[in-house]
Every structure is written in structure tokens, then in C-alpha cells.
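queue> pop job 88
queue> type: inverse folding (structure -> sequence)
queue> payload:
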């Protein structure tokens, strides 16, 4: 079993890593996840004035970590994704009773930046037509066969179990826009400003630093 350690402040997290490296008796791997930039950007956007100071603070802590473990360990710094701002008017929501939802076996799955649709039998053409009528100004709707031919989910054929999970259609935004099911009881105002999950360079390209 891999042990874990929670933390409330970045400074504490860095202290834990330093201690783990210095006290290690055998070769070890220590993984540190920092959610702070992701969480902040979701709520205020990537260009908010508070983002750069936060990044600079993390940079200073990583420099402190590097100095403390220099000669004992290597550091690999990367991110799991980037972010893109989507203004609220471009965040389309599907509410219960929407005609588009009535054509689906379940609400859209996947991510708001790449929604996946499982369409009821006999409704494919009607669904595609209504989707194009509403959202062709922001998203390209591709059926799963097109997605496979274009290798948008990776090279080679899509495995059967994965194919079932990706349904009949996937929508790919070509600008800053989202589309998601909004469950009953959730206030519409609770929307992230910065999001991820699409194919834009800002969302997909991440740094990789090895020190």
C-alpha cells in the first residue's frame, strides 16, 4: 500500500516532500499534487490578477524544494491539463425536459468541453439535426465512426468496451464554448469560468521540467 499525507498549505506540502526524500533509506518516488492553480482558475479565469502571484509563490516553493534535495533526487514538474476561459454566455446548459435530452438514453457524459451522447434507437437523424441547428456555431458533431477514422481518441481501432462508453456522437468545440446537462436543483450561476477537456492547444499542451 502506498502511504499518503494530506496538507492545507503549499509550504507544508513542500516540507513533507523534503522530509520524505531526506529520510528515505531506499530508492523512493514521492508524488506531490498541487490543485491551487487549477482551483483558482476555475473560479476566476486564467487571466485574473490573482493567478500570477499564486504561480510565483509555487515557483518559490519549488525552488526551495530543489535546493533542499539537490544531489539526493531529481524533480519532474508537469501538469495534467491546461485551461481556457469560457464566458458564461457561451456555456450552454441542457435542462430537464429539453427536446435534445428527450432523444438521449442518458444526459450527456464526458466533459462540457467534449460532451458525449448516447442516442435512443431511431433518433440519430433527428438528434443530429437539432444539435446542428442549435450548436453548429460553436461545436462540430461527429459520430463515433468518424471519431475512430480520424483517430481523435488515439491511433488504431477503439476497443469495444471503450466504444460503448463513447456512445453515438461526440461534440468538439472549435471555439471557447461548453455544453452540459444542468441537473435539477443546481443553481445555474454555479459555473466555472475556466474549463478544460477540449482539444485546444491551451488545454492540451503542458510543460515538462526535469531538474
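queue> result:
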Amino acid at each position: 500500500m502506498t502511504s499518503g499525507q494530506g496538507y492545507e498549505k503549499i509550504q507544508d506540502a513542500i516540507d513533507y516532500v523534503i522530509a520524505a526524500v531526506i529520510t528515505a533509506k531506499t530508492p523512493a518516488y514521492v508524488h506531490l499534487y498541487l490543485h491551487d492553480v487549477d482551483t483558482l482558475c476555475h473560479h476566476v479565469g486564467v487571466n485574473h490578477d490573482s493567478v500570477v502571484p499564486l504561480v510565483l509563490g509555487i515557483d518559490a516553493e519549488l525552488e526551495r524544494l530543489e535546493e533542499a534535495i539537490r544531489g539526493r533526487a531529481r524533480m519532474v514538474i508537469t501538469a495534467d491539463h491546461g485551461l481556457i476561459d469560457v464566458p458564461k454566455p457561451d456555456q450552454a446548459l441542457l435542462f430537464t425536459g429539453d427536446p435534445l435530452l428527450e432523444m438521449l438514453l442518458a444526459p450527456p457524459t464526458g466533459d462540457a468541453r467534449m460532451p458525449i451522447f448516447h442516442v435512443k434507437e431511431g433518433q440519430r437523424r433527428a438528434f443530429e439535426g437539432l444539435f446542428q441547428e442549435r450548436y453548429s456555431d460553436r461545436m462540430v458533431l461527429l459520430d463515433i465512426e468518424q471519431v475512430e477514422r480520424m483517430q481523435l481518441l488515439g491511433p488504431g481501432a477503439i476497443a469495444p468496451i471503450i466504444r460503448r462508453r463513447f456512445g453515438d456522437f461526440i461534440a468538439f468545440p472549435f471555439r471557447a464554448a461548453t455544453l452540459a446537462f444542468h441537473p435539477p436543483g443546481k443553481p445555474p450561476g454555479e459555473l466555472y469560468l475556466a474549463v478544460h477537456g477540449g482539444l485546444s492547444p491551451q488545454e492540451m499542451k503542458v510543460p515538462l521540467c526535469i531538474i
